[in-house]
Purine nucleoside phosphorylase
Amino acid sequence: MTTTNAEIGVIGGSGFYSFLDDVEEVRIDTPYGPPSDPVAIGELAGRRVAFLPRHGRDHRFPPHKIPYRANLWALRSLGVRTVLAPSAVGSLTPGLGPGALAVPDQLIDRTSGRAQTYYDEGAAVHVSFADPYCPAGRRTAVAAARTAGWEPVDGGTLVVIEGPRFSTRAESRWFAAQGWTLVGMTGHPEAVLARELALCYTPLCLVTDLDAGIEEGEGVTHQEVLRVFGANMTRLRDLVADVIKALPADRACPCPHALDDLELPLELP
Ligand SMILES: [Zn+2]
């Protein structure tokens, strides 16, 4: 048990390996094993913030091997109730090119075989997931991006694929034909695990490439993703800081009530 605590958690995606200066690193173990990395805890504008690089700081966890359950559990055990989740995504929309920012409001799960619940045994716990993201967090993120002059796409659907490979052209065209906006590899089960712990969860999606079915060239490469992410890193980090400053102190959204009236087979940290 640590006396160090935090209120807001940031789970950094590819290229987003550090966030705050002057942090205390905390090693945590959970019933699901250790999280991707030690959690770095610091302060920003009077708010206590915990940072966790989703893939580990050396990017050792590919999307399908990320210890999602341990990550969210670790954050909650530190006191975190609000999670901001920046990530690199591909675009399924021709008008939405590299460097664009989106705050989706829907998610499609195309992953397979990932542990996606805390409630494996003892009792069936069915959380509502109709609106997978925190409405207050989304509003705050969109407003903060606008104020920063980075006009975001407000809404849209993120389809999460299993990876680690990128989509084929046919898959990508199919996703686009469904009207889906973005494609990523880590948004699920992260968002649902946050909901299962009654956390607020807000995605901040940085478009790094046009997905295979949309662009004309050779398809997505990992180098290109990292290049665009690197070029927009400072901007994204600043935006996450702006969102933290603007987040309401009290959670007036439905997220804290996600588990009301449900009988849980385990005690939450
Ligand atoms: Zn919320």
Q: What stands out?
A: The pocket of zinc ion is lined by residues 134, 136-137, 200, 251, 253, 255 (CB under 6 Å). The first helix runs from residue 68 to 77. DSSP finds five helices and eleven strands in the chain.
